[in-house]
Amino acid sequence: MKEVLPAPGPAIVRNETKRIRELFEQNIIPSYARFDLVLERGEGNYVLDIDGKRYLDLAAGIAVCSLGHAHPEITKALTEQSRKLTHVSNLYYNELQGQLGKRIVDLIAPGRVFFCNSGAEANEGLFKLARKFGHDDGRYEIITTVDSFHGRTLAGIAATGQEKVKKGFEPAVAGFKQVSFNDLDAMRRAISSRTAAILVEPVQGESGITIATPQYLIGLRKLCDQHNLLLLFDEVQAGHFRTGKFQSWQRILENEGVDLVLDAVSMAKSLGGGFPIGAFWVREKFANLLSAGTHASTFGGTPLACAVALKIFEVIEREHLAENARQVGNFLFTQLQEIQQRFPEILKVIRGLGLMIGIEFHPQFKAADLVKELHKRNVLTVPAGNSVIRLLPALNLSHAEAEEGLRLIEKLVVDLAGKE
Ligand code: PLP
User: Fold this and answer.
1) Could you tell me if the CB of 161 is within 6 A of ligand 1?
2) How far apart are alpha carbons 266 and 233 in whole angstroms?
3) C-alpha distances in angstroms, 216 versus 136, 159, 213, 251, 377?
4) What pLDDT is recorded for position 23?
5) What CA–CA distance (Å, rounded) separates 170 from 147?
6) How sure is the predictor about 2, in pLDDT bands with cuts at 50, 70 and 90?
7) What share of the chain is helix, strand, coil (3-state, %, to 5)?
8) Is any atom of ligand 1 closer than 6 Å to the C-beta of 69?
9) Residue nearest ligand 1's atom 7 by CA
10) Residue 150 Cβ < 6 Å to ligand 1
């Protein structure tokens, strides 16, 4: 395929990491614990740092760069659309937003979509939907789960089941409580006369890849039906074909013979492949709850963001990347399990679904240290919890690239075993 822009030349070796770190220290709010890497450019599933060192990217911007880096078709969609129309506001119609909404509706069930810019913002939409739903009979509470993650806004941290994100920001937004994950009895006991909705991640990502059982998801639907609650899923990290189906609950339930209809689902990350866009889908029955004037976002669903997201859908479909995510994910998972069985004193357990894999080490190994160690070995991964590293690569990761990543991770495990 012909590229629209000339490809960048070879990376310039500058050794300027220190200067750039100082620029951050002086000018950027220190809310992130960053690794000591300055990344400059990417090509496919590789990124290069400012010193020209090349890394296999198994992080993909934390499950964002669904087609890898500098994909020529994304570049083309961006440049062509930006020549036509970048932004118009939601005071008007634009066809691309309508087409993107249809893509999502067609892959879930009859319903409607709202576009925003991030995962946290998509979840805010779900919270407002639940409040509107319960409003007239005084219900406002949303039950979520321990170890969940739902974003960093005030309501997002109230919904999140991890104390560390809430600390220092009290008082918490009212109306959220957490119960243990994959525990239907705990959920049943937590429902009160104030409850309006249940929100879960079908695959918990930030806390280290924990997958809901099919019985849990089916049971949640039944509980919601019995108590007239909305069933909400957060698919911000697990969604967009990462697990081999459009959304992870569809993958989890694929062999159960049930057509689970949920009430709303949030999305972001891979939807824009690196261009910021978030969305939430609402079942047709509840789609008018957020009527004109009740919810809005200046940048939500711009022609530019929608052109990119539509192109990503097209490439995923044409290149069968859902199937690739399933196959390459299975390969990584089974190979990692084999390594775990050889080194059970180093690796505790491997969890995964498609291209969403958690490698849990024993607690004496700290996730951030392991990720740094892998940087030295030219591979990017994502830390989670105390001792888990996550693999969340692009959906087009090849078998050979997966093999390369496996050998680098295996070497780390072998070296750790040698030191023990
Ligand atoms: N929900 C889940 C499941 C996530 O993993 C994340 C981010 O990691 C969010 C919500 C928040 O998304 P964002 O960082 O785009 O606001």
Assistant:
1) no
2) 7
3) 29, 19, 5, 14, 39
4) 96
5) 19
6) very low
7) 40, 20, 40
8) no
9) 151
10) yes
